Amino acid sequence: MAEVIGPRTNRGWRAVVALVAAACLLAPAVASDDVVVLKSGRELRGRVVSDADHRVELDDAERGRVVLPRHLVRTVVRADAPPGLMAPLWLDGPDGEMPKTWIRFAAPADGEPGALSIGVGRFFHEPTRTTLFLVGAVHVADPAYYARLQDLLDSCDVVLFEGVGSRPGDPEPTAEQVARFDVLFQLQVKLQQILGFQGQKEGLDYRRPFWKRADVTLHDLAARMEERKVALPTDHPLVQVLLKIALGTLDSGQVGADPLVQRLAKRQAAAVMANADQMLGGALGGLQETLVDWRNDAALATLDREVAEGKPGRWLALFYGAAHLPDFATKLCARGFEFQAADFLPAWRLD
């Protein structure tokens, strides 16, 4: 027979509940541990002492001080802050709408610095339980940006990165092909020197065994451009001559030595770069199909193979120039990847 709680018993039960509730309100809060999640799936708990210089230092209650190379760590979840984009699991729905552009420009205002910020998107593929980070790149930036980017990319099991290369058996590039891309490279180097930035190749370590090139070759790119009858803005011989004269006469040391001139140059360059994806789809629309859409398709074919052949539940990264990301995002959704969240990392500080 079920027990019937009489008035006296009921009053006693209420008293117990009241005592428990009071204890919950009056007891001092006990801080939760920080959690370091390794790529192996193992979790270490304690207090994170440092998460810098591409390593994590943790005071573990059982093991004492533990120092972990960042490329072994999936993510760090601090007790006093939400994990955000790098949460071990994403349990909520999409965090806002997917960005239409992955480059943001904020001019300095009211005495506060501005920034050129580059987007990172988190996507999820339910059939394979694959988490994909779509990571934008800018080829010259503040060293702190590349340090943060290195840790983000190293948290993944595989990084598929941009880089026009070559394959065994390809013919040597012609002098014309070398000159075509050499002008662009020189412009990039000069911009780096003028603005006092670090280059992407110097700021990031690509030698990780899990970093893989996912791009077309120089030979195939040149052939595609010839087939589609498209040219770079710098292809015209007169433009190349003028650029070489400008590059030779522009004193980057003099510009860099004048803080005011350098600040103004950074702001102007940032405002132009913020419209890079619109420029490719507008006045330079003929290049969009070859430099962006076609190369993106090659990278996504590599991604398809990686997802199909790899274990379920991995974290992957697709790391490309920020102007490539709108097309990537659209095509990822068409492949069944669900957008979860986005964040923007400051790449250029604008004083």
Q: Keywords, please?
A:
single chain, disordered N terminus, 11 helices, 7-stranded mixed sheet, 5-stranded antiparallel sheet, 351 residues, alpha+beta
Instruction: Tell me, rounded to a whole number, the average pLDDT.
Output: 83
Number of helices: 11
* Helix-strand string: HEEEEEEEEEHEHEHEHHHHHHEHE
Number of strands: 14
Structure class: alpha+beta
Helix content: 40-55%
Fraction of residues in β-strands? 25-35%
Q: How many domain units?
A: 2
The global form is globular
- Largest sheet entry: 7 strands, mixed
Radius of gyration: 26 Å
Low-confidence stretches: 1-30
Model description:
By secondary structure, this protein is α+β, with helices and mostly antiparallel strands. It has two domains: 34-81, SH3 type barrels; 103-350, no CATH class. It has eleven helices and 14 strands. It has helices at residues 7-26, 143-154, 175-195, 200-203, 218-228, 237-249, 252-257, 259-273, 276-281, 285-309, 325-334, and strands at residues 34-38, 43-52, 55-60, 64-69, 73-77, 103-106, 114-125, 130-137, 140-141, 158-161, 198-199, 211-213, 315-321, 337-350. Strands 6, 7, 8, 10, 12, 13 and 14 form a seven-stranded mixed sheet that branches. A five-stranded antiparallel sheet has the order 4-3-2-1-5, with no helix packed on it. It has a two-stranded antiparallel ribbon with strand order 9-11. β1 and β2 (43-52) form a beta hairpin. α3 (175-195) packs parallel to α6 and α10 packs across α11 (325-334). The protein is globular and about 65 Å long. The model is unreliable at 1-30 (pLDDT under 50).
